[in-house]
Amino acid sequence: MSSRPPFEFNISAAADKKRKKTGRRGMSGAFDTADRPCDYPGCKEKGAYRAPKSPDLLDEFFWFCKDHIREYNLKWNFFQGTTDEEFQKFLDKDRVWERETKPFSRIGDGNAWARLGVNDPMALLGEKATQNPGRPSSAATRKLPPTERKAIEILDARDTMSKTEIRKVYKGLIKVLHPDMNGGDRSHEEQLQEVVWAWDQLKDSRYFRD
């Protein structure tokens, strides 16, 4: 039987332990397997501790012995050579996880309605904006399908009326809205279409008695 790993790599615990042994770092930060000399001039100790070469070269390292890594760390200044303005920009970016943000729009006086050229939001609805709040929900005395409920509201009828009574309301509206009955006034044609539609929904409805 072949001993070749099925996934092209060895996932055994022994292999994992062997991998971790290479380049293993101790609790002090020292690399136990490091065999390079200390980079400090004239030092012959083993360079078991690494340190970035500069703030611009964080992926390139010096290797020092224990004494010289301490000295290097004491002198290390990530912001060395940075102006106050550059330092403040760094803080601002770090505050938002280095993701640029944009302030909220402040067009005009900061009022969102100003973008539409409206000083008073209620002006969008005209002078009668609050004079016709609609029929109160208490006008509904029983549950109806949405279509029938909408038709009743268009005709301004009551849901307790019979079809005969609703038909009288419908005819009264036709006399006011139809051009042939109101002297040729065609300004209400859109409302007339809604009234005709509403009666078509109710005349054969099983929710209203004859």
Q: Could you characterize what this model shows?
A:
- With 210 residues, the chain is mainly α.
- The protein has helices spanning 13-21, 66-75, 84-95, 146-155, 163-177, 189-202; strands spanning 49-54, 57-64.
- The radius of gyration is 42 Å and the shape is elongated.
- α4 packs across α6 and α5 (163-177) runs antiparallel to α6.
- Strands 1-2 form a two-stranded antiparallel ribbon.
- The mean pLDDT is 74.
Shape: elongated
Helix content: 25-40%
What would you report as the Rg, rounded to the nearest angstrom? 42 Å
* Sheet with most strands: 2 strands, antiparallel
Average pLDDT figure: 74
Through-space gap between termini: 89 Å
**Residue windows where pLDDT falls under 50 for at least 5 positions:** none
Strand residue percentage = 5-15%
Class from helix and strand fractions: mainly alpha
- What series of H and E elements makes up the topology? HEEHHHHH
- Secondary structure tally: strands: 2
Number of helices: 6
Which strand order spans the largest sheet, edge to edge or round the barrel?
A: 1-2
